[in-house]
């Protein structure tokens, strides 16, 4: 990474402050770019989903891992529930998506409330273990109301194929049948999953993030209080592939003690820890046993830390400094927070991050755990910060009312924010396409074929607010 004409900035910068200068490039196709990380997490795209309750659940975990990313389950989830989610993710098919499954006796109302939990827009009706019909979203008609049972409302399945059918064949079969969704079954005719045309295309583009046994990978977070080692061990025994030791102020003694204990337990998985924003902070975490340092204080969309405390640091400079320090020790960093455009992921990689962590942006997708709401502006979900009154109340649910209320007085996060479902990108997979398309293109502009090369070759310039504004498209035209 270097700055245009050697103009090293004399102040800290964030993503919006920077532009990337195109280099002479021999690249011919953006599909030749390898987006895999080398930080031990197995990601094949540089995306980790933040351990936030409103974002990182089981559907997010399976979907993102299938495309090569990694989801971190939040530390507030009790061990048994986290273990269940990990088991679910590990049992998922690497190609087929998990559909909403209904029985013929279920009602239309039940199907319609569950279908938006998946992006493919349909539920599979299963009878006696066999898929027998489909119910699409928003079905209306003469004889169909919300109290109709699915036996009467379902439509025949247009394409049923054996699981393991080559995705290209699935795509072609769907095209020939003029259908959108294929149901995949095992040798006994039992439901394995579903695949859309776009899903079949994606299966040929992305590589799933899989463990040594060929199962989807998933990470889990622990805090720094209580039996941290016991919980971390339990999560790894349940199958967690990465442990994240997480607290807002990662450069504190309690963190270093907890982290050293987790690292000392030799759990056999990469240990990420944070958050910090300085070289000293990164090195102290690495010395305590972190192989990945989580960087970012205050850039998050739900964070009020900087406004409340003045503490934090512009994210690009924080990532660049910590990544340089980590690299010296053979460790890595994740750029955590403030990702709002594909360019931010490219700039995080340019700064030296092995992965960018995304939270709130992914809250507005069908795969996030929250319920889908609709208002006059369209569909949305509700997100909240992990240091907000709402998250703190959930975390201290076993406290007495007085202690709960007392903790709630000191929040450093937003308790409720409507995150719009972008009609152009309603699924997290659409956003992943969007981000990866941008990052792949950045790589070809910089003449890189890997993330590491992108970091090495990138030439950056510092821009004014007008420079950033100039680069924004005019959505409404003139
Ligand atoms: P984005 O911008 O992707 O950032 O939503 C995700 C990261 O934000 C952090 N986070 C918080 N920070 N108060 C904070 O100061 C909060 O309530 C809060 N919730 C999340 C966290 O690092 C996450 O990964």
TrEMBL record:
GO terms for cellular component: cytosol. K(+) binds at residues 298, 300, 303. Keywords: CBS domain, NAD, NADP, Oxidoreductase, Potassium, Purine salvage, Repeat. Its cofactor is a monovalent cation. NAD(+) binds at residues 246-248, 296-298. NADP(+) binds at residues 246-248, 296-298. Its EC number is 1.7.1.7. PANTHER family: GMP REDUCTASE. This is GMP reductase. It comes from Gordonia malaquae NBRC 108250. The gene is guaB1.
């Amino acid at each position: 990474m270097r700055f245009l004409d050697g103009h090293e900035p004399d102040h800290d910068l964030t993503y919006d402050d920077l532009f990337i200068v195109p280099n002479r490039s021999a690249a011919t196709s953006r599909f030749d770019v390898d987006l895999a990380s080398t930080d031990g997490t197995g990601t094949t795209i540089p995306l980790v989903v933040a351990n936030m309750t409103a974002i990182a659940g089981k559907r997010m975990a399976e979907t993102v891992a299938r495309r090569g990313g990694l989801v971190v389950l939040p530390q507030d989830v009790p061990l048994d529930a986290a273990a269940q989610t990990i088991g679910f993710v590990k049992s998922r098919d690497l190609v087929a998506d998990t559909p909403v499954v209904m029985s013929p006796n279920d009602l239309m109302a039940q199907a319609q409330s569950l279908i938006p939990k998946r992006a493919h827009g349909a539920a599979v009706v299963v009878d006696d273990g066999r898929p027998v019909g489909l119910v699409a979203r928003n079905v209306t008609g003469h004889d169909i109301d919300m109290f109709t049972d699915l036996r009467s409302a379902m439509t025949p399945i247009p394409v049923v194929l054996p699981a393991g059918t080559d995705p290209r064949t699935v795509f072609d079969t769907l095209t020939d049948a003029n259908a959108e969704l294929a149901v995949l079954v095992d040798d006994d005719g039992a439901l394995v999953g579903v695949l859309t045309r776009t899903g079949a295309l994606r299966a040929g583009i992305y590589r799933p993030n899989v463990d040594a046994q060929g199962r989807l990978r998933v990470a889990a977070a622990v805090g720094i209080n209580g039996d941290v080692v016991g919980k971390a061990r339990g999560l790894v025994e349940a199958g967690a592939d990465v442990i994240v030791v997480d607290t807002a102020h990662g450069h504190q003694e309690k963190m270093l003690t907890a982290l050293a204990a987790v690292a000392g337990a030799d759990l056999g998985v990469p240990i990420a820890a944070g958050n910090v924003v300085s070289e000293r902070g990164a090195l102290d975490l690495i010395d305590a046993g972190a192989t990945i340092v989580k960087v970012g204080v205050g850039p998050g969309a739900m964070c009020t830390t900087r406004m409340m405390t003045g503490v934090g640091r512009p994210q690009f400079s924080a990532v660049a400094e910590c990544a340089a320090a980590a690299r010296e020790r053979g460790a890595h960093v994740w750029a955590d927070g403030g990702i709002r455009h594909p360019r931010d992921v490219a700039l995080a990689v340019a700064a030296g991050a092995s992965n960018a962590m995304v939270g709130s942006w992914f809250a507005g997708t069908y795969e996030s755990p929250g319920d889908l709401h609709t208002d006059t502006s369209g569909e949305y979900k509700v997100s909240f910060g992990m240091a907000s009154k709402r998250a703190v109340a959930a975390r201290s649910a076993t406290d007495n009312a007085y202690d709960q209320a007392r903790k709630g007085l000191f929040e450093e996060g937003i308790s409720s924010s409507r995150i719009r479902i972008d009609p152009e990108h309603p699924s997290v997979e659409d956003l992943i396409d969007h981000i990866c398309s941008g990052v792949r293109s950045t790589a070809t502009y910089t003449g890189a074929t890997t993330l590491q090369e992108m970091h090495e070759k990138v030439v950056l310039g510092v821009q004014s607010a007008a420079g950033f504004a100039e680069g924004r498209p005019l959505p409404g035209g003139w």
